[in-house]
Design a protein that fits this description.
Layout lengths: L3 H24 L5 H22 L10 H22 L5 H8 L2 H12 L3 E2 L1 H22 L7 H19 L8 H15 L7 H7 L2 H28 L2 H6 L4 H13 L15 H21 L11 E2 L2
Antiparallel strand pairs: 1-2
């Protein structure tokens, strides 16, 4: 049973992460993908720096610096810039559905790099998942064209998934807040490559776009991570992890209320258009199977996508 504080923290985190996709679309009305990413994580870095004044972050070991910087590069710099580029043409709701299949990539990485076996049911689930992503790409592209914005978002997903695998080796040595700070500060430092022209963009951008980017840094960029860390420390990982599958419906609702978007151009009435739902379910099954195998927790839908270490 979750405490009311944990419930509130988790609900706020999901709401902020779900709203991030619409906020990115709003921010892109005034900023380039690179400027948006830099401005967002400079804001988050300042907020985390203020937090560190009251709860100091541990100094990383010299031998870990390269790996920690790689985490920031993959999990912050590459992921954010790729999703920003993708959302120039992909709607917020569609982008959230693609990102929700991240567990599929985690399952593949576990198979190739962690030595975990993936049975035929798992390969079938992964194929259905990628089919759903492809359908979103075609559907949001209009007509019979493929929207390559979906490819950008897939690149971001893959980058974030690799970051998650790398992060596992440091969890025993650093706290979750330490790793969050290292990732955001390192990622923001690497994003400084987009610094030229940022101040000009801030002056020229409409207020709505600037406020959206500031919100991305304060809410989804910093506060949501804090809420996520609190939830992971207070609640079972299975409950917290499965809650991420609420992000796409939240993103779709927020995008409709904020931007008037509802996956425009997507062939919802066509029978094959149910593939995104299959994609979502396949990702959910993969995540639960991962948790069952790694944490020893029983999951219902995990039986459909089995990952076994023996």
């Amino acid at each position: 049973m979750l405490s009311w504080r944990t419930t509130i923290a988790l609900a706020a985190t999901l709401l902020m992460w779900g709203s991030a996709f619409a906020a990115i679309r709003a921010g892109l009305q005034g900023y380039s993908p690179g400027h948006l990413a830099l401005f967002r994580f400079l804001t988050a870095s300042v907020l985390l720096g203020a937090y560190a004044l009251f709860r100091p972050v541990s100094i990383p070991r010299r031998g870990d610096l390269a790996g920690l910087l790689l985490m920031g590069f993959l999990g912050i710099s590459v992921y954010t810039v790729a999703v920003n580029y993708g959302e120039q043409t992909v709607t917020a709701g569609a982008a959230s559905m693609i990102v929700a299949t991240t567990p599929i990539f985690l399952a593949l990485l576990a198979y190739f790099f962690l030595g975990e076996r993936l049975r035929w049911q798992g390969w079938l689930g992964l194929a259905i998942g990628f089919g759903g992503v492809a359908l979103i790409g075609f559907g949001t592209g209009g007509g019979v064209g493929f929207d390559f914005g979906a490819v950008w978002i897939l690149l971001g997903m893959l980058s974030a998934s690799v970051c998650s695998v790398i992060q596992k080796r440091y969890m025993a040595r650093y706290s979750a807040m330490d790793l969050t700070a290292y990732s955001i500060w390192g990622g923001a430092a690497l994003l400084l490559v987009f610094a030229p022209g940022l101040m000009t963009a801030v002056r020229a951008s409409p207020l709505d776009a600037t406020l959206a980017v500031i919100y991305l840094g304060v809410g989804p960029g910093a506060l949501a991570y804090s809420g996520w860390i609190h939830a992971l420390n207070e609640a079972p990982a299975t409950i917290v992890g499965n809650s991420l599958f609420l992000v796409p419906p939240i993103a779709i609702v927020v995008a409709y209320l904020w931007l008037g978007e509802f996956l425009r151009g997507f062939p919802w009435r066509a029978a094959p258009s149910r593939c995104p739902a299959w994609c979502w379910c396949a990702g959910k099954a993969a995540a639960e199977a991962w948790m069952r195998q790694r944490l020893g927790c029983p999951c219902t839908t995990a039986r459909m996508l089995r990952i076994d270490g023996e």
